[in-house]
Design brief:
Layout: E1 2-6, H1 13-24, E2 27-30, H2 31-41, H3 44-54, H4 61-72, E3 81-84, H5 90-102, E4 109-114, H6 117-131, H7 140-154, H8 157-163, E5 167-171, H9 176-187
Parallel strand pairs: 1-3, 1-4, 2-3, 4-5
Helix pairs in contact: 1-9, 2-3, 2-4, 4-5, 6-7
């Protein structure tokens, strides 16, 4: 089973992806972790990535797709995978589909955690009050920017996956256990 989890920042994508990984024995793939692992491997691609990152540039879609393809072809992804944080744009989604089709695979479910932006902003304010803003991304301004990026770049992917018949919406405002239960009702029993 191959899954993509979407939702704005703070919606609980990472939390739910970890639960699905554990319950369904799938591999959660984080683009950031994959990039760091490739750099650490000191492969030819790793050296290229290190130079791109050191220059403060964005890694191209082609390179990201290549890294994801390499990860997906590993034995740990044999049962399936969960993509959290990718794709972010329509060209990335289309490139992912092409790459998966060459591997005789496809995306089975796209789970969207729907949340209220005002409540997300209230959550970040509470976290700032509790922690004193200890995390570098703990600011209302940063969250508002990340929400804007999600709405303008990633949310437009939803109709693409809806047209493919794989889009599943989940109320991300529910307690964690209830969100998990909704996701499990979509995926079937683990």
């Amino acid at each position: 089973m191959n899954i993509i989890v979407f939702g704005p920042p703070g919606a609980g994508k990472g939390t739910q992806s970890k639960i699905v990984q554990d319950n369904y024995k799938l591999k959660q793939l984080s683009t950031g972790e994959m990039l760091r692992a490739e750099v650490a491997s000191e492969s030819t691609l790793g050296h290229t990535l290190k130079a791109i990152i050191a220059a403060g540039e964005l890694v191209s879609d082609d390179i990201i797709i290549e890294i994801i393809g390499t990860c997906i072809s590993q034995p740990e992804c044999e049962r399936g995978f969960i993509l959290d944080g990718f794709p972010r744009t329509l060209p990335q989604a289309k490139a992912l589909d092409v790459m998966l089709s060459h591997m005789s695979r496809s995306i089975d479910h796209v789970v969207v955690l729907e949340v209220d932006n005002d409540i997300l902003i209230d959550r970040i304010r509470s976290r700032i009050d509790e922690t004193g803003g200890a995390r570098s991304d703990d600011s209302e301004e940063v969250l508002r920017n990340r929400l804007h990026v999600y709405e303008t770049q990633t949310a437009p992917l939803l109709p693409y996956y809806e047209a493919k018949g794989v889009l599943r919406k989940v109320d991300g405002m529910l307690p964690i256990e209830d969100v998990t239960a909704e996701i499990e009702s979509i995926l079937g029993a683990p």
